[in-house]
Amino acid sequence: MRLFLAGVVPDAVKQTLHAQLASVRVATPQARWLPADSLHLTLVFLGAVPDPSVLPLQAAFGSVCGRHHPVHLTLGGVETFGPSRSPRVLATTLAGDVEELHSLVADARHAAEPLVPLETERQFRPHLTVARARSPHGDVLLSINGEQVNTATGLTDVLDRHYPGDVVDLVWVDRNGHQLTGKATLSSGD
Hints:
29% of the residues lie in helices and 34% in strands. The chain starts with a strand and ends in a 5-residue tail after the last strand. The protein has helices at 11-20, 22-27, 51-66, 98-112, 152-160; strands spanning 2-8, 31-33, 40-48, 73-81, 89-96, 127-133, 140-144, 147-148, 167-173, 179-185. With 190 residues, the chain is an alpha+beta fold. The strands form three sheets. The protein has a four-stranded antiparallel β-sheet. A four-stranded antiparallel β-sheet has the order 8-7-9-10. A two-stranded antiparallel ribbon has the order 1-3.
């Protein structure tokens, strides 16, 4: 079975994030949005794990968690993974006890290594994945109200200048290369 070690996201945080992203979901129906109840913080991806390794991994991770203090995190900004013009993943960053979280992840990886082969370690970037591209090429949002959007920060900057109830004009290129236009009504994040 395919497994990963994940942190649980409180329901209130899931609902807040889901509400805050409502206008972005409207603007990007071509994305595969994760339901609020499936949001989680992936700490270590384990991949295919043989059944006999599950219980030893559970015990090892329990021991690791017992050695660490609770980690307090807050929602940060928005980022993407993949090429900037056709990202594969949209995520929210996390702030707060990030150093403690990095320590927890390093200890969890160390505990798992003797039990299962792990992928090559990539730099851990604390985030909650909120959407994925439906195709490997993704769709590209070009502009909101005529303002070019090149990055996740650019998207945030443009949306920060608008209010709930504002109707914005969108221009995007779909995964088939067709340029499309549409309107979206922004909603409140609470």
